[in-house]
Specification:
The structure is a single chain. This protein is α/β, with parallel strands linked by helices. It has two domains: about 180 residues, 3-Layer(aba) Sandwich (Rossmann fold); about 170 residues, NAD(P)-binding Rossmann-like Domain (Rossmann fold). Helix content is about 35%, strand content about 15%. The protein is built from 14 helices and 15 strands. The strands form two sheets. It has an eight-stranded mixed sheet with strand order 3-2-1-4-5-6-14-15, sandwiched between helices. It has a seven-stranded mixed sheet with strand order 9-8-7-10-11-13-12, with helices on both faces. A hairpin with a 2-residue loop joins strand 14 and strand 15. Helix 6 crosses helix 7. The longest helix is centred in the last third of the chain and has 29 residues. The protein is globular, with a radius of gyration of 21 Å. The model has no long low-confidence stretch (mean pLDDT about 95).
Length: about 375
């Protein structure tokens, strides 16, 4: 199979979808790998590193998409990339379609098959291709929040861990999944006072054990969240509903309960954001204020640490990329129900039900749509 790796063009995105190790694995299996010139530079990977492992370097995106059958990316395709997709292509990347009807429509019209990292499931219903970036994003969320609390950055001017004789900051984490757990580990390591909210009691028990009782675990009722907000210096939103738009767990009215220049970090922004006042920002311009509350809503937080993120992501995605290349789309997805759940678009049909429900579009079962791919 011909596998293509384009340069990511989303603002402030430095990751790349394949490492030289991945090229080596595919080349050894006699697949052709095409890498756009400069694709790895943001992750400190030179074109020569890819060539040494068997890749072909192509000069631009047009040449890359022309050569490739399987296009492997990191972020959702931008408009000029969507224009290059057609029915020959299988796209394997993060999509986050639920809050973005224009992206959904563009992919449907392209005729391409689109498989989303974030909706692939393993045998236990977990999200193995989302998990590594959730780990990175959770850790960055606390680091970024601590930085934004500094007065020159517009924050309250409080040190997350305090010092002897001066109380630590209060960190409130809403969502106890992979993001929330990693955010809490960093906050605890920085000696903050940490509260983690979730609605799954069994998960709260797991977190209590993982944290050794150092963090308070709280049931995430609307009232309990509202009662904790006035004490919070940093609030991290880490709410995930598989493939669907994130619910709002803090409203604009509730911002009035908070301390002036407190910080909100919304890690759910790729799925529409879990604060009512959230809107996507970039690493170049990461924050804005609403009602004297600083909002940090960068849509690709792991992109700030591309060396870590690229290798963490490709460690997880490579078995799936190899499976697609070796067995082809129909056999690879047909043999693995969890992989099939990654199928979001096929043959002009929307095949992920939460997105269809959110956007009021028709849903077609992925197995049925897949049968139309390649049909004559």
């Amino acid at each position: 199979m011909k596998v293509g790796v384009p340069t990511e063009i989303k603002t402030d995105e430095y990751r790349v979808a394949l490492t030289p190790a991945g090229v080596r694995e595919l080349a050894q299996l006699e697949h052709e790998v095409y890498v756009q010139a400069g694709a790895g530079e943001g992750s400190a990977i030179a074109d020569a590193d890819y060539v040494a492992q068997g890749a072909h370097i192509v000069p631009d995106a047009d040449a890359l998409f022309d050569a490739a059958e399987l296009v492997v990316k990191v972020k959702e395709p931008q408009p000029e990339e969507i224009a290059r997709l057609d029915s020959r292509h299988t796209l394997f990347t993060y999509l986050h379609l639920a809050p973005d009807p224009a992206l959904t429509r563009g992919l449907l019209d392209s005729g391409a098959v689109c498989v989303a990292y974030e909706t692939v499931e393993d045998a236990r219903g977990r999200l193995p291709l989302l998990a590594p970036m959730s780990e990175v994003a959770g850790k960055i969320a606390t680091q970024a929040g601590a930085f934004m609390l500094e007065k020159p950055l517009g924050g309250r001017g409080i040190l997350l861990g305090g010092v002897p004789g001066v109380a630590a900051a209060n960190v409130m984490i809403i969502g106890g999944g992979v993001v929330g757990m990693n955010a809490a580990f960093i906050a605890l390591g920085m000696e903050a006072t940490v509260f983690v909210f979730d609605r799954d009691i069994d998960r709260l028990r797991e977190l209590d054990i993982a944290f050794g009782g150092r963090a308070d675990t709280c049931y995430a009722s609307t009232l309990d969240i509202e009662q904790r907000l006035p004490f919070a210096d940093l609030v991290i939103g880490a709410v995930l509903v598989h493939g669907a738009r994130a619910p709002h767990v803090v409203t604009r009215a509730q911002l009035g309960l908070m301390k002036r220049q407190a910080v909100l970090v919304d890690v759910s922004i790729d799925q529409g954001g879990c604060f009512e006042t959230s809107r996507a920002t970039t690493h170049s311009e990461p924050t804005y204020e609403v009602d004297s509350i600083t909002h940090y809503c960068v849509g690709n937080m792991p992109g700030a640490v591309p060396i870590t993120s690229t290798y963490a992501l490709t460690n997880a995605t490579m078995p799936y990329v190899i499976d697609l290349a070796n067995r082809g789309l129909h056999e690879a997805l047909g043999a693995d129900p969890g992989f099939m759940r990654g199928l979001n678009v096929a043959a002009g049909q929307l095949t992920y039900e939460p997105v269809a429900r959110e956007q009021g579009l028709d849903y077609v079962a992925p197995e049925a749509a897949l049968r139309l791919v390649g049909a004559t």
